[in-house]
Specification:
Layout: H1 2-35, E1 37-38, E2 49-55, E3 60-65, E4 67-68, E5 71-72, E6 91-98, H2 99-104, H3 113-121, E7 123-132, E8 140-144, H4 146-157, E9 180-189, H5 195-206, E10 210-211, H6 218-221, E11 225-226
Antiparallel strand pairs: 1-10, 2-3, 2-8, 3-6, 4-5, 6-7, 7-9, 8-11
Length: 269
């Protein structure tokens, strides 16, 4: 009897160690992946187009000018897709995440076991788009060449599921505020392919130095300089177009500045 109890105790300890090994391995892999660079030879140019990385501590978004390098986002994500976009909103933030986490979790109180399971195991990826007049709420800025910007533009555009007319498919959802909308994305989001991995992947395709695998925002953002909180010319650093509003664009559900603003939102995947 005592021998049987000891065997059960050993089995339980081994099971607990195996369960602990999963998150520990994930964290170790995240640390290593954040330290290993891709496009290691990239250097920020002296002049070019500046983009921004929004950060709320958990989720990162890319913020691009509405129009730059001969490319215009307006035909793809028109202002009419949003409820009320200010005239001076000439910047657009882009984020990607798991559908249920993004759409069904506007606050921390809305988290459910089903949502957490979806965030870990994965689900349909959706795109979150928001117009803003001032991108300098963002944590980091990156100056890139026009050619790198065109690659980044194409890499983001390729993440939208398009209809027969070549337009992104808008999801029937009110958004987090009057200046944002959700669209069907391509692929799946999960704990292995998070919102922050998505941002790093777009930068990699653009030829910008970034982290090999960064499921957490901190593993990506440390590589770039802090955004300057001042107005700069559009072609030099593409700073804010207007400060007529105190609105800070959202970067995802449940966390504000994406599981992304005027609303506090929560999104990691």
């Amino acid at each position: 009897m005592a021998r049987r109890r000891k065997a059960r105790s050993r089995t339980l300890r081994r099971l607990l160690l195996a369960l602990l090994a999963v998150p520990v391995s994930y964290l170790v892999a995240a640390l290593l992946g954040s330290l290993i660079p891709v496009n290691a030879g990239w250097r920020e140019p002296e002049a070019g187009i500046t983009i921004y990385l929004a950060d709320n501590g958990v989720h990162a978004d890319l913020i691009l000018p509405k129009r730059a390098a001969g490319l215009d986002w307006a035909p793809l994500v028109p202002r009419t897709d949003m409820a009320d976009v200010l005239p001076g909103a000439n910047w657009i933030s882009f984020g990607a995440g798991e559908r249920r986490v993004y759409l069904d979790t506007p606050t921390w109180a809305d988290i459910t076991p089903r949502t957490l399971w979806a965030a870990i195991t994965g689900g349909e990826r959706v795109m979150h788009v928001e117009y803003t007049s001032d991108p300098t709420y963002a944590a980091r800025s990156i100056r890139i060449t026009p050619e790198q910007y065109r690659r980044l533009w194409a890499a983001i555009r390729a993440e939208f599921r398009l209809d027969r007319q070549g337009r992104p498919v808008r999801i029937d959802h009110p958004g987090y505020g009057p200046r944002d909308a959700f669209y069907q994305g391509v692929g799946r989001a999960s704990a292995l392919s998070t919102c922050n991995n998505w941002v790093a992947g777009r930068l990699r395709l653009a030829g910008v130095k970034t982290s090999l695998w960064s499921p957490f925002a901190q593993g990506l953002l440390w590589r770039y300089q802090e955004a300057e909180q001042e107005r700069l010319s559009p072609q030099r650093r593409l700073g804010p177009m207007s400060r007529q509003t105190g609105h800070r664009p959202s970067t995802g559900p449940m966390w504000t500045p994406a599981f992304a603003g005027a609303t506090a939102t929560a999104h990691t995947y």
